[in-house]
Fold this sequence. Notes:
The structure is a single chain. The protein contains 6 helices and 9 strands; from the N terminus they run βαββαβαβααβαβββ. By secondary structure, the protein is an alpha+beta fold. It has a single domain, classed as Aminopeptidase, CATH 3.40.630.30. The relative contact order is 0.16.
Amino acid sequence: MTGIEITTVAQRPELAARLWDMADTWPEFAQHDALAWLLYPRMVAELPEYVLVATDGDQVVARGFSVPFALRAPGRGDLPARGWDQVLMWAFSDLRRGVDPDTVSAIEISVATGRQGEGLSGRMLAAMRENARARGFAEVVAPVRPSGKPAEPDTPMHAYAVRTRADGLPYDPWLRVHVRAGGVIHAVAPLSMTISGSLAEWREWTGLPFEEAGPVRVPGALVPVHCDPEQGHAVYVEPNVWVRHPLTG
């Protein structure tokens, strides 16, 4: 791991075009989140100092996106139930209106397929925390997508998020990385990401029939997708887990 270098896109703008060169483990349906389509290019273009890239020689092996926003602005104050979606909207609303941010939110940390198990996710999280600290922030928050949850789509997230091992650390591997890094599990964001599509689109994304009304268990999904053949669509509402990372004290 000595050859790994983690930088921001602001420091190495030539890497902006290579962020999606690496293969990752995101399920296909997750590529069709409307806010992601709209705002990922804007994160790279307008907030490059919050976009992290890990390289091993000339190879991109991990990427991390984060955004600054004003958590303590009027009408806010607590981490939102709409999690990932809401914090992205707040960040770009604040940027457009010139509102000073007071918090950084993680958006994504992804490791290249074939490079899992090397500690890269923890290193990217540490780099994201340090990047925020260096820019004067006292807290990083993260709407965490627990990595083990797809194996238990029917388990309520509020029960899964607080499950621990015998040593007291979270049962979930990705939550465990956050807690070991100094994060504190705060709350569940019950509707953190919403992805909707026609039945034909869901069939294309998943290879599943999407013919019967009710819950459909989709590989990679944290909870079942709700299928409504009568209305001709299916909707996935993903819960995430808010983790707070204080950077002072």
